[in-house]
Amino acid sequence: SPVDPILSIQAAVMRKPWAEGMPDQSFSLHEAIEGYTVEGAYAEFLEHRKGRLKPGYLADIVVLSADIEATAPEALHTVRPVTTICGGKVTYQA
Fold first, then answer.
1. 40-49, pLDDT tens digit by residue?
2. Could you point out which of 35, 46, 67, 69 has its C-alpha 20 to 30 Å from the C-alpha of 7?
3. Cα(7)–Cα(53) distance, integer angstroms
């Protein structure tokens, strides 16, 4: 089945300990987003060209329907992509 980064980010942020007394294993929103951006680029050995909005980096950007920093964690699944830009070209537009 297709991977939905928003649902994965929501799961990472809302993760609960699997048993009482176990440590919290949830991620902050910032950490979860980095997992899909900076850390993804690092895994490809492309951290010098991808993963950040920075001059000279590849322009792979997703515009979302809402500000995920202002969205409650339990409502993140309602945020959808509106526009996707890969390599500086629009590849998806709702």
1. 999 999 999 9
2. 46
3. 22
